[in-house]
Design goal:
Elements: H1 8-18, E1 20-22, H2 33-38, H3 52-63, E2 69-75, E3 78-83, H4 87-97, E4 104-109, E5 115-120, H5 124-132, H6 137-144
Antiparallel strand pairs: 1-3, 2-3, 4-5
Helix pairs in contact: 1-3, 4-5, 5-6
């Protein structure tokens, strides 16, 4: 499938099927979204790739599906997209691996027009509870303050 045919729905189906994917980092057993979108291995920054703007648009669209996908730095401190069916399992693992791995990543625009990632902490005592209850990632942040 070419990049031109990829949609946010395609990416959501990919994340749902895999359960957990990395944005652009490589891992021996976890696929990455950027190379899925580009249909090829990317060396260096994906921003420099000829399809960088398309990749950005699709990733931004996927991040907006908060009811289905949480974006955090769960695997090795790298941006990870986790489908809702794995949220409860990840919440249970966070007590062992560190709760900061469940902090949600949100992209904000600065006054100068740059993009900046912002972490939204999910407190330990509530993270498993709200995820198990099936709240969206946005509702999860509101529920835990």
């Amino acid at each position: 499938m070419s990049t031109e045919n990829k949609t946010v729905s395609n990416l959501l189906a990919f994340v749902e099927r895999e359960g957990m994917v990395l944005e652009s980092a490589r891992h021996p057993s976890v696929p990455n979204l950027v190379e899925y979108i580009a249909n090829e291995r990317i060396t260096g920054s994906w921003w420099g790739h000829s399809k960088g703007h398309e990749i950005y648009a699709l990733l931004s669209g996927l991040r907006e599906t908060k009811q289905e996908v949480a974006v955090c730095k769960f695997i090795g401190g790298k941006i990870t997209y986790i489908h809702r069916r794995l949220w409860a399992a990840c919440a249970r693992l966070a007590n062992v691996l560190g709760t900061e791995r469940l902090d949600l990543i949100h992209s904000v625009h600065t006054d100068k027009g740059y993009h900046k990632s912002q972490r939204i902490p999910v407190p330990t005592k509530n993270s498993a509870l709200v995820i198990v209850q099936g709240l969206t990632s946005f509702e999860m942040v509101r529920a835990v303050g």
